[in-house]
Every structure is written in structure tokens, then in C-alpha cells.
Backbone:
């Protein structure tokens, strides 16, 4: 009786590749395979050179990204990293302006799920400019930002959902993901277990959906918990530099985990005090006064 | 005794290019607005005479302090809104309408005439009014003028048989309607009843799937009616007649209008599941309480789905206010609230800085000052050195709201200073200082 030949390492790899392809086809995912780094094709430029370079153009969509504040010397770690999340919401809005979708870009909504991650509405009400535009590198500040006109007010398109239980928050996120007019979902992802995060991850990858950015805000302690998020980020206040004339809040961000080994694990994109180009900063001139005239 | 208040719109100009329906629609809208004074309002249109509104105020006048004060109030309200009109009260709609037209002896004409109920008094009060006030057809009016009958008083002395023979029965009927001898029909504005769908069963049904199917069918019926009327529903009421129990009522307010039965059922399902059907359902009635036109822009359905599950006050939008204070400059409102106007940027003041997170309730902190400069702060047990402090930004009560129950002294006490500070670890905080007390208001997180 002839015995079957032992698979060589090459044929073993090919089989794995075929299996991966078959699973991807069955799950309806079209973008997984074929990409060298196993990352979905749609990417939103963040305006942060290190991050955009790392991901080949921007933060990948169709996946959950988790963010947490790391600030051991102050109680700020109890808050959601809203400065960065608001920045990404604006970036997603700018990216949508250049895409032709079923829902016009000016009608696409942002859903803030959980009162813990509701930003102050001033950060969503800008007259003409993107809040971080002046501080981004000219090379990555692409023309898409020029399309942000007066009508691009995120506050008009923001829905704030007060949901306390994790079950409700996940249900809200899943419901919002099914809506093609939702472009960004910012979720209070505290207490989000592995099963729930996997549900969200699969929901955002479902075929036929409009590209949606799914951002989760967590506490630093929870970043060690298992999760299906494709990236996990730490946000910390930028160390003070008295020689820096810019009197704006600045943060350092570091990538603490990434799925699928797209890059070596570790800290990337650290800037601020160590670099002339801040990763994320707020410019005082972008917030404009509202409601000064009595009606 | 019946009493009628007439509002004669003397300055109404009909646009010949516009459709006659537009005029009628505008008058009906104005009539609905006048229902604040009486529930029964009728529109009187007879071209080429100016249109009028007739209000049946029987039993209403005492609510406004009597007829005289009521009439003055109506006249003042309309005048304040730049509506040029004449008003009068009479025992019949026709008498009130005629009394709005001034007589030929202007010197004795009252500004707001009130006609008594007596028949002879009506004749006496309206005798000096011109024939045109009767709103007859042009041929009859011309014929009356040919025989030198110019005033209503002239007609009243002519034998009735002669008037009927020469000018027809319409003239006599109008005179009879004026003094109440002949009843005049009054057709008040009635809104169309809201679309409603109903299903009654022969007997109580306790099965959940039957009830679900029942809701499906009734909603489909309701949506068919709405589509026929080119309307969409904004608010619906579901009444479930239960066996051996009181009627269960469920209300649903939608953020965006809809005429999709599947979507409506999806929104109603959580509330209907909580409704105990007890010994069975006997009947189901769904009414569209509030509807909008079908061509109005639609809101997305996600908002409704979220609202249906979490409640109306849990799904919110922001709306700008006219307040300066950071915690009051925006207001959270339910998604079904009317759309907000865009805020106006202030032309002179430099834009202030606002944090990404504003605390619901400001937290007390202790701040160490050395020679009026901020050195350290202690917040939630953490002591931090202050590296930078930018301020103060004086925030006080807005000048346009100071008059509302607050005096200048109190307003001065309400003012506070905002400081933006950076701690030694790089965090930025928003502090407020008010009468020796420091509090933390927000964080750039």
C-alpha cells in the first residue's frame, strides 16, 4: 500500500493559503486575501505620518480600533481619549467627501455611543477648518481637507446615545453599522468582552456595507484584556516642553497591539516632545464662538 | 343666545395669478390660528367682497372678560400682527359681518360694534350700513342702486312682497338671516380625522404570533391610507383592546417620518412585547396622530430604532444656545425636536478654547497660589505642578438675559474666571475660579 507523501513546507503553506482564501470567501470578505499584510483595502489618512506610513495610507477601516489614555500621574486616565477620537471623526468626514457613495457625504452621521465618550460639541462645530490641519505634515495634508466647507459641521450630524449596559452599547453599534448613512461610530468599549468585540469586528467587516470607522474607547487596564480589535492604541499627554511655544494640548500615541502582524509590535508614531511634528494637537484658533447673538 | 364674532379682512388682496385654492388654504390656516378664541371658526369667501372669518363665540366671551373686552383683545392681537381688519360681534353671523362695514355716518360709527340680540335693535344698528355689506350678487346690488336703495335701512321700510317680486327671494333671505328670522348654516373648519386602521376579532386571541400578524396587517392598512393621502407618519398611537383588562395604549414618536409598515413594526415591537395581553386580544386600533407630507426629507431609520429600544431621552442631538458659559452653550435635545439654526460666530471676541470633555458637575480642587500665580493643584488625590496657566477668561451672565429675574449684583456674583492650565505631565485642564473657590470644569483628554 502506497503511503501518502509527507507535505513539504511549501505545499503546507500553499494549503494554508487556500484554506484562508476559502474561509474568506465563505465569510464574504473580499479584501482579506490578496493584501500582503492581511489588512482591508480602505484606509483613512490620519494626518500622522508615522501611522499613515505604517498602514500604507491610513488607518484601516472594517475593523475595531481601541484607544485608551495612559496618564499615570494624573486622573485624566479615567476619561476617554476624545481629542484623538474627534480628530479621527473629522478625518473620516474628509475622506468621505471624496468618495461617491449612496448617501452623500454631508449627510453621513457620527454616532457617539455611551455618555463616557461624548465630546463637548465645540469640538464638532468648526467654521471652515479642520482642527488639526495646521499641525499636520504638509505631505500628508492632502487635498481632501480642502473640501471641508462651512456645511461640514459634525455637530449637526452627531447622534449621542446614552446606553449604560454593555449589551445595549453593542446592540446600538451593530444597529448603526447596518445603516449606510453612518460613517463613524465611537463606542464606549469599557467592559467589552472578547465575544462582543468579535461580534462587532465581524459586523463591521460584513460585505456590502458602506465603509465605516469603528472606534472604541477603553481604559488602560482593559487594554490587556483579550479583544478582537485590529489595533490598540495608548494616548498619553505630551510631556511638557517649555521651549515649545505652542500652547495647545498635544498627545503622544503609541500602538500597543496590532492584529495579523502587519508590523512589529511596539511603540510607533511617538512624537510630541521627541519630534517637531506633533502627532495630535489642538490649535486654539479652530474653536469658534457660537451663540453670541441673542435670538 | 348664539353670538358670532366676525373678522373682516379689509386689506386682503387676492393674487389673480395664484390659484384660488391658495387663498382658501391661507384663510383656513388663519382660521385654525383663530381657534385660540373659539373652537368653531368658519371662513367666508364670496368674491369680489373681502374674505372674513366668523367665530361662534357662544359661551366663550366670559372667558375673556365679557364681549367688549374680548372684542378689544381680538382687535389688538390682530393689529399687533399687522393684520388690517374690522371686527364686530352680533347675534347672527350675517349681522356681525355687516356690522364690520362702516356706515355712511362715520361720526357715530363705533370702532368695535357689538350688536344686541333684539330684532329691532339689529335693524336700528345696521340701518345705516350700505347695501354692499349684504354681499349680494353684482346684478342685484346694481338694481337696488337704480331705484335709490343705498342703505339697509332703505330696504327695511319697503314692503317685503315688493322686494321679493322685484329682486328675487335671495334678498329677502339675506335680510332674514341678518336679523335671525332665517337660520344661516355655519360650516366650521374641521380638520380631517387622522388616518386610522382597525381590526376586531370575533373572540379574544391569546397567541403571540397571531397578535404579531395582526399588528402587521393593521400597520399595512394604515400605511396604505397614508400613501393614498401622500403623507408619512411622525407619531402613532396603538390601542389594544384586551379581554378582562383595560385598553393597552402604546405611543411612538418617530425622529423621521415613515410610511413603511415593516419599519414601524420594528419600532413598535419592544413596546408591544412589554404590553401584557392578559386573557387575549379582542381588537387592535392604530392611529396616525401626527403626519407630514410625503415629499418632506426623511430622517434615517437608525435613530428611530435606537429611540425605540432605549427611549426618547436617551438618543439625543446637540443644539446651540445663546449662552456664553461652556456648559450652557450647547443643549442636548431629543432627535425628534425641531431642527436647530446654525450658530453665529461672534464678530469681535477671539474664539475661546473649550475642552474635549466637560464635566457634568464641576469638581472641587485646591489650588496653591504664589504671588497671584498658579503653582500647584490637587485633584482627586493627585498633586500636580502647574507649568502653564492661560487666563483668566471672564464668563458672566449674558447681558440679554440679565433682566430675567436677576439683578446686577447677583449677575456680578455669578461671573467667574476660566483658566486653562497645563500640568507638569502635559495634561491640559480647564479650571474655574469663583469667589475664592476653585473647581475643575473640563479636561482635554
Residues:
Amino acid at each position: 500500500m502506497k503511503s501518502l507523501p509527507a507535505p513539504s513546507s511549501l505545499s503546507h503553506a500553499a494549503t494554508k493559503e487556500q484554506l484562508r482564501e476559502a474561509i474568506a470567501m465563505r465569510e464574504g470578505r473580499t479584501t482579506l486575501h490578496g493584501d500582503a499584510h492581511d489588512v482591508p483595502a480602505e484606509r483613512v489618512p490620519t494626518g500622522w505620518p508615522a501611522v499613515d506610513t505604517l498602514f500604507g495610507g491610513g488607518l484601516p477601516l472594517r475593523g475595531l480600533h481601541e484607544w485608551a489614555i495612559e496618564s499615570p500621574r494624573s486622573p485624566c486616565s479615567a476619561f476617554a481619549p476624545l481629542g484623538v477620537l474627534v480628530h479621527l471623526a473629522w478625518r473620516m468626514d474628509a475622506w468621505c467627501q471624496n468618495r461617491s457613495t449612496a448617501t452623500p457625504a454631508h449627510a453621513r452621521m457620527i454616532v457617539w455611543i455611551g455618555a463616557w465618550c461624548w465630546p463637548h460639541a465645540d469640538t464638532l462645530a468648526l467654521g471652515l477648518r479642520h482642527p488639526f490641519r495646521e499641525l499636520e505634515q504638509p505631505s500628508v495634508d492632502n487635498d481632501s481637507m480642502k473640501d471641508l466647507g462651512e456645511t461640514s459641521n459634525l455637530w449637526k450630524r452627531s447622534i449621542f446615545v446614552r446606553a449604560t449596559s454593555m449589551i445595549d452599547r453593542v446592540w446600538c453599534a451593530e444597529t448603526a453599522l447596518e445603516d449606510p448613512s453612518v460613517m463613524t461610530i465611537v463606542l464606549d468599549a469599557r467592559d467589552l468582552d472578547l465575544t462582543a468585540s468579535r461580534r462587532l469586528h465581524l459586523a463591521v467587516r460584513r460585505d456590502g456595507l458602506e465603509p465605516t470607522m469603528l472606534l472604541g474607547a477603553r481604559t488602560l487596564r482593559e487594554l490587556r484584556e483579550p479583544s478582537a480589535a485590529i489595533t490598540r492604541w495608548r494616548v498619553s499627554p505630551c510631556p511638557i516642553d517649555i521651549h515649545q511655544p505652542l500652547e495647545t494640548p498635544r498627545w503622544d500615541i503609541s500602538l500597543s497591539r496590532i492584529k495579523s502582524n502587519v508590523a512589529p509590535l511596539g511603540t510607533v508614531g511617538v512624537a510630541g516632545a521627541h519630534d517637531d511634528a506633533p502627532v495630535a494637537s489642538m490649535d486654539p484658533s479652530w474653536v469658534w464662538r457660537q451663540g453670541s447673538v441673542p435670538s | 343666545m348664539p353670538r358670532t364674532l366676525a373678522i373682516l379682512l379689509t386689506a386682503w388682496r387676492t393674487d389673480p395669478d395664484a390659484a384660488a385654492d391658495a387663498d382658501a388654504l391661507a384663510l383656513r390656516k388663519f382660521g385654525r390660528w383663530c381657534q385660540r378664541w373659539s373652537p368653531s371658526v368658519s371662513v367666508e369667501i364670496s368674491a369680489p367682497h373681502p374674505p372674513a372669518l366668523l367665530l361662534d363665540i357662544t359661551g366663550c366671551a366670559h372667558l375673556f372678560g365679557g364681549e367688549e373686552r374680548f372684542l378689544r383683545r381680538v382687535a389688538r392681537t390682530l393689529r399687533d400682527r399687522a393684520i388690517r381688519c374690522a371686527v364686530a360681534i352680533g347675534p347672527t353671523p350675517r349681522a356681525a359681518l355687516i356690522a364690520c362695514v362702516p356706515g355712511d355716518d362715520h361720526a357715530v360709527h363705533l370702532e368695535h360694534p357689538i350688536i344686541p340680540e333684539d330684532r329691532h335693535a339689529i335693524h336700528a344698528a345696521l340701518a345705516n350700513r350700505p347695501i354692499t355689506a349684504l354681499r349680494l350678487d353684482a346684478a342685484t346690488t346694481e338694481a337696488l342702486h337704480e331705484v335709490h336703495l343705498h342703505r339697509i335701512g332703505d330696504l327695511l321700510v319697503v314692503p317685503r312682497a315688493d322686494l321679493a317680486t322685484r329682486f328675487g327671494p335671495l334678498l329677502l333671505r339675506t335680510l332674514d338671516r341678518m336679523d335671525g328670522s332665517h337660520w344661516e348654516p355655519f360650516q366650521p373648519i374641521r380638520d380631517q380625522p387622522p388616518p386610522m386602521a382597525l381590526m376586531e376579532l370575533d373572540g379574544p386571541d391569546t397567541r403571540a404570533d397571531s397578535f404579531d400578524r395582526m399588528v402587521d396587517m393593521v400597520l399595512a392598512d394604515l400605511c396604505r391610507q397614508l400613501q393614498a393621502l401622500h403623507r408619512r407618519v411622525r407619531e402613532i398611537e396603538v390601542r389594544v383592546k384586551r379581554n378582562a383588562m383595560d385598553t393597552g395604549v402604546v405611543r411612538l414618536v418617530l425622529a423621521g417620518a415613515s410610511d413603511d409598515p415593516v419599519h414601524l413594526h420594528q419600532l413598535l415591537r419592544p413596546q408591544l412585547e412589554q404590553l401584557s395581553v392578559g386573557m387575549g386580544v379582542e381588537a387592535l386600533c392604530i392611529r396616525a396622530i401626527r403626519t407630514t407630507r410625503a415629499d418632506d426629507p426623511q430622517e434615517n431609520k437608525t435613530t428611530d430604532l435606537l429611540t425605540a429600544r432605549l427611549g426618547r431621552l436617551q438618543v439625543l442631538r446637540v443644539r446651540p444656545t445663546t449662552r456664553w458659559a461652556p456648559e450652557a452653550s450647547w443643549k442636548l435635545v431629543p432627535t425628534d425636536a425641531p431642527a436647530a439654526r446654525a450658530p453665529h460666530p461672534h464678530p469681535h471676541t477671539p474664539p475661546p478654547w473649550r475642552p474635549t470633555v466637560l464635566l457634568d458637575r464641576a469638581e472641587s480642587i485646591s489650588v496653591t497660589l504664589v504671588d497671584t500665580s498658579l503653582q500647584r493643584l490637587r485633584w482627586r488625590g493627585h498633586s500636580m505642578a502647574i507649568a502653564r496657566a492661560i487666563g483668566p477668561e471672564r464668563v458672566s451672565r449674558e447681558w440679554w438675559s440679565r433682566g430675567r429675574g436677576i439683578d446686577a449684583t447677583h449677575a456680578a456674583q455669578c461671573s467667574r474666571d476660566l483658566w486653562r492650565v497645563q500640568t507638569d505631565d502635559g495634561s491640559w485642564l480647564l479650571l474655574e475660579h469663583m469667589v475664592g473657590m476653585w473647581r475643575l470644569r473640563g479636561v482635554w483628554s
